[in-house]
């Protein structure tokens, strides 16, 4: 089992960071890798069990199921149901935010565990790591735009 972990400090309050990241259907809003996303069956994007179907700019398709979402804990967990662009199996990821009281910032951590063939391990690790890092960067930027400091 492989594991990727990324953390970041976002220069926005936790309510603003969470306001962007909690929307399970908003990846294209804050992430440069992704072009289009829809929640299957018209379900709300914060409903446990909803499935997001999204595409990267090269046409790669991913379907993920929301497993948990907690506004109290500022966490969400999801799993990949199908993916065309990564050679992974049994992929489960979790994202968590915590307030940094000094300076009213947010600490974010995002990790995933999955199975991957040895020959694909390094490239998959890089893609997943970049995905999480760019998500934090994009969410911070969107939050700053939405709630002008």
TrEMBL record:
First and last residue of the signal peptide: none
CDD domains: PYR_PYL_RCAR_like
Gene3D superfamilies, sorted: 3.30.530.20
InterPro entries the UniProt entry points to: Polyketide_cyclase/dehydratase, START-like_dom_sf
UniProt-recorded name of the protein: Polyketide cyclase
């Amino acid at each position: 089992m492989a594991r990727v972990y990324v953390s970041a400090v976002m220069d926005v309050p936790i309510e603003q960071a969470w306001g962007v990241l909690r929307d399970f259907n908003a990846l294209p809003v804050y992430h440069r890798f992704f072009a289009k996303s829809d929640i299957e069956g018209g379900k709300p994007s914060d409903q446990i069990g909803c499935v997001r179907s999204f595409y990267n700019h090269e046409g790669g398709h991913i379907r993920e199921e929301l497993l948990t979402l907690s506004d109290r804990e500022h966490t969400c967990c999801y799993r990949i149901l199908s993916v065309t662009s990564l050679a992974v199996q049994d992929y489960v990821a979790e994202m968590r935010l915590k307030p940094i009281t000094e300076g009213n910032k947010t600490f974010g951590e995002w990790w995933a565990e999955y199975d991957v063939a040895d020959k694909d391990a390094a490239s998959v690790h890089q893609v997943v790591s970049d995905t999480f890092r760019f998500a934090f960067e994009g969410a911070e930027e969107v939050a700053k735009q939405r709630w002008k400091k």
